[in-house]
Amino acid sequence: MKKTDQEITDPAVIEEILTGSSVCRIAMHDGEAPYVLPFNFGYRDRCIYIHSAASGKKTDLLKQNGKVCFEMELTAKIIRDTSPCKWSTLYRSVVGYGHVEILKGTQAKLDALEIIMSHYGAPDQTAFKASQVRELVVLKLTIDRLSGKQSGNWDSFISYDRYNLESDRLLLKEVTRDDLEHLHRLHTFPEVDEFNTLGIPATIESTRMLLEEAMAEKREPVRKKILWSIFLKSTGAYIGEAGMSLSANRFRLGEVFYNLDPKYWGKGYATETVKRMISFGFGELKLHKVEAGVATGNTRSVRVLEKAGMTREGLRRKVLPIRGQWKDNYHYAIVEDDPRND
C-alpha cells in the first residue's frame, strides 16, 4: 500500500531534488533484466543531460531501446539509535520514466555540457576542446513522468525555519533561495570585501553555488553550519548576513561571523546580531564556547566583538588570504560562564 504521507506532491520540492542531486541512476533495458548505471548529469526544464564515451554497452542498449527509468536522491542519511530496531533512514528522492535520445551536432552537445557544468556549480568552465566534443556522446533524457517520496520521519527531523531568531530590532531568518540577489549584492560592496577572504564574486552563479551549500546544510539532521539573512523588524529591509559554524559535539564550540550592508553600519546592528548569536549558542545549542576571528586591521569588528562581551584570546599570524596577501587575525571568544553584555 502506498503511504500517502510520504508522497511528495509539491512541484517545487521535486524540482529541488532534480536540481540539487549529484548522481542520477538510470535503468536501461537489457533483455530479461535491467542494466543500471550511476551518472553525473545536468538538469534543466524537465530534461536530464549526460555525457558518455562514444561506444560501450549503455550506448548500444539505448540505441536499441531509449525508454528508461531513473532515480536520484537529494538526501539519504542513516539515523542511528541506541536500539537497533529504532535505526531509520532520512531521505528525499524521485523516480521517473522517460526516453533518451543521442544529441546531434556540436552546438547541441556544447549547450548540454554547459548545463552539466552549471549543475555542479561551474557555469564559467565551458572551454571545451572541439576534438573532445566530437568524440563524446551526449544523451538527452526527456522526462515523461515522475514521482517523489520522502521518509516518514522527514518533518520531525527537518524544519527549514527551526533556527530563525529575533532580537529587539532584528529578525535573523535562515537563508532561502529568495535571498540570492540580496546576498550577491552584499558581497559586491568593496567595503564588505575589504577583510573578506572569499573576494567579490565574479558572477551571481558563484554566489548561487555558496547559497546552495547552505541550503544543503539545512537538510542535515545534525547541523554543522547555520546561515541567516538579517532583516529590520521595522521595515523588513535586508541589511546583511550572519552565520555560525559548529564543532563536533564533544567540543561544544561555535564560531560566528557577519557582514552588513555599509549603509547600516554604525547603528549597533552588528553588535545586536552577535549578542543574539551568542545567546542562541549558549541557550538553544548548549555550547560551551562561542568564538570569532577578525583581521587585526578590522577595527570596526574588533569593537563589535568586544561590545558583545567577547575577550581577545590571541593572535594568529598571517592566516587570512586577502587579495593576494596574508593578514594577521585576532581570536576572540566568550565561554558559557563568562559575564555577558546582554
Task: Describe the secondary-structure layout.
Blueprint: E1 7-8, H1 11-20, E2 24-30, E3 33-39, E4 42-44, E5 47-52, H2 57-64, E6 67-79, E7 88-102, H3 106-119, H4 130-135, E8 137-150, H5 154-157, E9 165-166, E10 170-174, H6 180-186, H7 190-193, H8 204-218, E11 225-232, E12 238-246, E13 253-260, H9 269-283, E14 289-295, H10 299-307, E15 311-322, E16 325-335
Parallel strand pairs: 13-14
Antiparallel strand pairs: 1-8, 2-3, 2-6, 4-5, 5-8, 6-7, 7-8, 9-10, 10-11, 11-12, 12-13, 14-16, 15-16
Helix pairs in contact: 6-8
Core attributes:
10 helices, eight-stranded mixed β-sheet, Pnp Oxidase, Chain A, eight-stranded antiparallel β-sheet, alpha+beta, 16 strands, Aminopeptidase, 342 residues, globular
What report would you give on this structure?
There is one protein chain. By secondary structure, the chain is of the alpha+beta class. The chain is built from ten helices and 16 strands. The protein has two domains: 4-156, Electron Transport, Fmn-binding Protein, Chain A (Pnp Oxidase, Chain A, Roll), CATH 2.30.110; 159-335, Aminopeptidase (3-Layer(aba) Sandwich). The chain is globular. The strands form two sheets. Strands 1, 2, 3, 4, 5, 6, 7 and 8 form an eight-stranded antiparallel β-sheet that branches. The protein has an eight-stranded mixed β-sheet with strand order 9-10-11-12-13-14-16-15, with helices on both faces.
